[in-house]
Design brief:
Strand 4 and strand 5 (99-108) form a beta hairpin. This protein has a five-stranded antiparallel sheet with strand order 1-8-9-13-12. A four-stranded antiparallel sheet has the order 4-5-10-11. It is globular, with a radius of gyration of 22 Å. With 405 residues, the chain is of the alpha+beta class. The protein is 33% helix and 30% strand. The chain has a domain at 266-404: Orthogonal Bundle (Arc Repressor Mutant, subunit A), CATH 1.10.10.10. It is built from twelve helices and 17 strands. This is Replication protein A.
Length: 405
């Protein structure tokens, strides 16, 4: 599969041409070459599903773990029906690779023009499950090579170059078919919705390093451009510029590979999110090792509940039912072999107030993780992030030996 994107300044949308000095594809740019490198992600599982497991994509380290999408409440409303409070605030609390991220994220909805009963109506659209599906498919296209570096006169941006049909096919491949108008509206919602981060990053492995503090505001997509002819439909060309946060994570190799179809083929949003989370956090999955989480904490991270919600008995039972279905999905998908639940009781009343889940990885998932870890290690070596044997120059065969260790 060629990574070359056949594009030049001349065939970009009119909204971009005058702003650009040049375009580089993944064959011309080292960072993008690493981002689209998936030659080592084949696995040796002897099953009919083995071919599909090569549907490789990337996921961004802590960014994709944060609750950036709306799971409940308003998702699309005419402006005149908008509530007084439209900005959704969630807590950030994640530990990844020894770094503890704590703070908050704010999600501001987009204003999108849509047709209702034959009339153009302006609506508020909160980024929800639909937008998450489209974003995952968009990054899948980028990981396959549909990504370029655009040298704007005002600075550099990474952008995904694709047709509406290509994006529709990625969604269809995992059972998420959408008509073109819905895909376009989802892209517009991603571009119009805003993210506000305010968080600290603490290195839990080294107490001598001061906490870092970050605050930023951006859109899910930096900008969005379309070009084509009337009636083209799926042949309409699109340019989606990634935001600065994602751009920097590509440059700093702060992403990991996962099997796109394995996660995205799951029908339920919570199951898809949990599968992606396992690819992120269970990087040492092996027979005998388990992964623990608390129900209320994980549902808050997902976005089903908020930190200040009152968790009644009925609400707790509903959350447990949702997680039980997700656990069955993960077993059916071959990600985990088994799981157990233990009660968390109030010390004073003896009442059950939470549950702790313990998950056991399947042999199949352990093999996937081993393969993905080798791929990630090789990319870090090639990108200079992992120092090997006093930075000696190594040939391709020697590189393969190091990765295997």
């Amino acid at each position: 599969m060629s990574r070359k994107v056949n594009i030049s300044v001349e065939n970009l949308p009119d909204s971009l041409r005058g702003q650009i000095n040049g375009v580089e594809s993944a064959t011309d740019n080292e960072n993008l070459a690493l981002f689209t490198d998936n030659k080592d992600v084949r696995i040796s599982i002897e099953s009919s599903a083995a071919h599909g497991l090569r549907a490789y994509s990337n996921t961004f380290n802590h960014y994709d773990l944060w609750g950036r999408f709306v799971r409940s409440g308003h998702k699309k409303l005419p402006l005149e029906e908008a509530p007084k409070k439209t900005i959704i605030t969630r807590r950030i609390s994640e530990k990844l690779d020894g770094i503890l991220y704590e703070g908050e994220i704010k999600i501001t909805p987009a204003v999108v023009s849509t047709r209702q009963d034959g009339e153009e109506v302006e609506c508020l659209v909160w980024p929800s499950d639909r937008e998450e599906k489209v974003e995952r498919a968009l990054i899948r296209l980028a990981s396959k090579g549909k990504i370029v570096k655009i040298n704007f006169k005002s600075g550099i941006q990474y952008a995904v170059i694709f047709s509406m049909n290509e994006l529709a096919q990625e969604l269809k491949a995992v059972g998420q078919s959408m008509p073109y108008p819905q895909i376009k509206e989802s892209l517009e919602a991603l571009q119009g919705s805003k993210l506000s981060f305010k968080y600290s990053a603490t290195d839990t492995r080294n107490s001598h390093i001061d906490d870092s503090f970050y605050e930023s505001n951006m859109n899910f997509l930096s900008s969005l451009h379309f070009s084509g002819k009337k009636g083209q439909g799926g042949n309409v060309k699109c340019v989606a510029c990634l935001n600065a946060f994602v751009h920097n994570m590509i440059d700093n190799l702060e992403y990991k590979g996962y099997y796109f179809n394995r996660a995205q083929e799951l029908k339920r949003g919570l199951s898809r999110w949990m599968m992606l989370r396992l690819y992120h956090l269970w990087r040492y999955a092996a027979p005998g090792k388990t992964y623990h989480f608390r129900l209320i904490s994980i549902m808050e991270k997902y976005g089903s509940i908020y930190a200040d919600d009152e968790i009644t008995d009925n609400k707790l039972k509903a959350l447990r039912r949702d997680m039980t279905t997700t656990m069955k999905d993960l077993i059916d998908k071959g990600a985990i072999s088994d799981y157990s639940i233990s009660n968390v009781k109030d010390d004073n009343t003896g009442k059950i107030i939470d549950y702790v889940y313990e998950m056991h990885p399947s042999d199949e998932f352990c093999e996937e993780i081993l393969t993905l870890n080798k791929q990630h290690k090789r990319i870090e070596i090639q990108g200079g992030k992992r120092i090997v044997e006093n930075a000696e120059v190594i040939d391709e065969e020697r590189l393969e030996e190091i990765v295997e260790k």
